[in-house]
Amino acid sequence: MSQAVEQSARSKFQWRVLAPIVLLIILSSLDRVNISFAALQMNADIGLDPHAYGLAVGMFFVGYLLFQFPSTWVLTRVGARRWIAGCVGLWGAVAAAMAFVRSAEELFVLRFLLGCAESGFAPGVVYYCSGWMPKRYRANSIAVTMLAIPASVIIGGPLCGWLMGVSNPLDMPGWRWMLLMEGLVTVAMAGVAYFIFVDKPSDARWLTDGEKDWIANALAEEQKAAQAPASSSIKTALVDPRAWLAAGVWCTTLIGANGLIFWLPQVIKEMSSLSPLAVGALSALPWVGVALGMVLNSWHSDKTQERYRHLGVALAIGMVALLMASAIPPSPWSLLLLFIGGFGLGGAQGVFWSIPTGFFHRAAAAAGITLINLVGNIGSLAGPYVIGVIRAESGSFSAPIWFVAAVMGAGTLLLASLRVSERRAIRG
Question: Do 371 and 261 form a contact (C-beta atoms < 8 A)?
């Protein structure tokens, strides 16, 4: 009977919580990365060179970093339902406004505001989901939410290309129409989100009393094994070396992901004279690898209950594949290697959050997760700009790919240090 209740609670969580979150993260990622497709037309229209484009990409992460803690603080005060609806509506409005930029400076401002609006959403979702399922199911659950990011590129690449290529009733340039439509869809979803989500499992009318009891008991039992913070949750996270090492590992994966997201369409465009629709379709290929890596690696990690080797091997696969891709001329073989690199990158991201959510007590989880995401996203801020500088100086995309591969190699060393630190903490 208890096993049936457990399976029923998990199934309802997946359909009533995870599925809507995945949709919102798809919109979040799409509104964040559609600039990479808009750049095919936008850069010439408003006069962006590679340095300025890299800066525009990076301005998102300035706002994203500055408002992480304020956003998650609001989440813990107003509840998930109001917080989710507010975040979604705000970033949708800013995303739609980018359709009307006339200069690089206006683009910088709106990208900054978009980062502010989306700032707490990713760590907030991780924290929210960790309050629904025990950690033995967490790698796959979090990986499913993260699957939305490659899904947004797999779906969004062709979608962006199509929207940029069709005529529209406002007679706008294709890139402007694409940004406007995708932003307005997000605004509409904010209203829907308010009625879909609940603040916590005990508020869910669609759970039976037995299912609510199973969730509460499973999480309470798990918390007994975690060390409760002796001081404030933020101070606890700040003085925990595991949080900083985990942030370094997360930083390396985000540099790899943002390298693919923001520069790959231009790599493919440089290789060919393809249409925007074809560029969008080919840009999705490495992200199919990311999606497969997330699903398969997180599933096997949950099955074996092993985390560190799954993460380390995935990072190593991504590093080797990218190094090989940088060593050969642009060709179908290089795209295949980027696919394999994406598989390794996705495998690493799919497993990563099961590690820090496992060693933080619930009382310190929100601050710890936010700290890791905040520090890790320094890579999201610096990575695209550094890649732009390397691209401008070298005149090719081989050197930036080598840079990303080297960063992922550093991630494996940080992961080894994190494992040592975790063993020391367990021994007390």
Answer: no
User: What's the pTM?
Assistant: 0.68
Q: 102: which residues sit within 8 A by CB, 6+ positions away?
A: 46
**CATH number of the domain within which 402 lies:** 1.20.1250.20
Q: How many CA atoms lie within 13 A of 20 on its CB side?
A: 20
Q: From CA 202, how far away is CA 76, in angstroms rounded?
A: 16
Question: H-type helices in 98-169, by residue range?
Answer: 104-118, 121-130, 138-146, 148-165
Q: What is the CA radius of gyration of the chain?
A: 21
Please choose, from the candidates 41, 334, 46, the residue with its C-alpha nearest in 3D space to the C-alpha of residue 161.
Answer: 41
Residue-wise pLDDT tens digits, 124-148: 887 788 778 777 776 677 777 777 7
Nearest-10 crossing angle of helices 35-46, 241-271? 60
Domains: count for the chain: 1
- Whether 391 and 397 have beta carbons less than 8 Å apart is answered as yes
Nearest to 363 by CA among 134, 76, 66, 18: 76
61 contact partners, CB below 8 Å, separation of at least 6 = 115, 377, 378, 380, 381
Distance CA 206, CA 12 (A): 8
pLDDT band at 121 (very low <50, low <70, confident <90, very high): confident
What is the tally of helices (H) and strands (E) in the chain? 22, 0
The amino acid present at 256, given as its one-letter code, is: G
Q: Which domain holds residue 364?
A: 2-427
* Residue type for position 298: S
Q: How many CA atoms lie less than 13 Å away from 75 in the CB half-sphere?
A: 26
The residue with tokens 């690493």 is 348
Return the H-helix or E-strand segment holding 101.
Answer: none
